[in-house]
Design goal:
mainly alpha, Rhopdopsin 7-helix transmembrane proteins, three-stranded mixed β-sheet, 3 strands, 75% helix, olfactory receptor activity, GPCR_Rhodpsn, cell membrane, membrane, Olfact_rcpt
Length: 343
């Protein structure tokens, strides 16, 4: 740690000669005050002020739609008894994840559009990443759980209610959020425990581990290994469970002799498959690119889609293709209209 501290002091004051660096008292006292980073600077999506003012209402609209659609679906599922089934129970938590994930990033982006210097404190940066990572890992697990639910619903429809009991569903949700919390905690601690004392410019519009680790003067090997292991355990294992579940679903559907039965069975999975494709497709595109490409504008565009647009698209994909949700929405609208006429 002493050698790292010495290097950081040299990096903090590159204009000083070696004799000045070893000068006692005053110069060393000043250098000690600059050995750790207390603030990061987010470079954002663009340096052009005019473009930022154009993007502000667009991102604000996307964030409001995300909140309204996801919160509306949570309330609708809670209030309509016909939607009190495992699949909608899981989907209400997916909407909660989308709200939390979007809220961990979008308010900061919106405020940064109106700022000249996009500063974020060390603690705020760590908190933003922790919440975003927690929700992202939990969504990986939840999508795998929903794939297993669809397999049970199609493969064993007569035993579905007995297998997917309320207790099991609650344990699955607790497992998804609990494991996501632990995974995020491990990555966040390993990353932000590193020593930061020099450059503090993050080449992104939010705090993300690959860009943050590159700013450290410590050996990042352990942090990179933790990030790699968590990515494998949550990302690829969840994707493997989803592929296997839908592989069994496909085998079962092929056994159905009549076409209408096959189409009906597949339609229950179409919305979930669309969400899985968007989530894992863009996620893998962002995080499996070579490290040198993180500075490219194309990578930021993919990140916008992954972080901002997907939480808005998920409820739209699920609700617009779902007859039960449409019927529940019509029923709730009629009840609200009926009550308003008698008030």
């Amino acid at each position: 740690m002493k050698s790292i501290s010495f290097v950081c002091r040299i990096k903090a004051f590159p204009s000083l000669t070696f004799s000045h660096r070893l000068a006692p008292n005053r110069s060393m006292e000043v250098s000690r005050n600059h050995t750790s980073v207390a603030m990061f600077v987010l470079l954002g999506l663009s340096d052009e002020k005019r473009l930022q003012l154009i993007l502000f209402p667009i991102f604000l609209g996307i964030y409001l739609v995300t909140l309204i659609w996801n919160l509306g679906l949570i309330i609708l599922i809670k209030m309509d008894s016909h939607l009190h089934t495992p699949v909608y129970f899981f989907f209400s938590f997916l909407s909660f994840i989308d709200i939390s994930y979007s809220s961990s990033v979008s308010p900061r982006i919106l405020s940064d559009f109106l700022k000249v210097e996009k500063k974020i404190s060390f603690i705020a940066c760590a908190t933003q990443y922790f919440v975003g990572c927690w929700m992202g890992l939990s969504e990986c697990c939840l999508l795998a759980v929903m794939a297993c639910d669809r397999y049970v619903a199609i493969g064993s429809p007569l035993q579905y209610s007995a297998i997917m009991s309320p207790g099991l569903c609650q344990n699955m949700i607790a497992g998804a959020f609990g494991s996501g919390f632990l995974g995020s905690l491990v990555v966040t601690i390993s990353c932000f425990h590193l020593y930061y004392c020099g450059p503090n410019l993050i080449q992104h519009f939010f705090c993300d581990v690959p860009q943050i680790i590159s700013l450290s003067f410590s050996n990042p090997f352990i942090s990179q290994m933790m990030l790699f292991l968590v990515s494998i355990i949550f990302g690829f294992c969840s994707l493997l469970v989803i592929i296997l579940s839908y592989g069994f679903v496909a085998v079962y559907i092929l056994k159905i002799s009549y076409i209408k039965g096959s189409a009906k069975a597949f339609s229950t999975c179409a919305s979930h498959l669309a969400i899985v494709t968007l989530f894992f497709g863009t996620g893998l595109s962002v995080y499996l690119l070579p490290s040198s490409s993180h500075l490219k504008k194309e990578d930021k565009v993919l990140s916008v889609f992954y972080v901002i647009l997907i939480p808005m698209l998920n409820p739209l994909i699920y609700s617009l293709r779902n007859k039960e949700i449409k019927e529940a929405l019509k029923t709730m609208t009629k009840k609200a209209t009926h009550l308003s006429l008698y008030q």
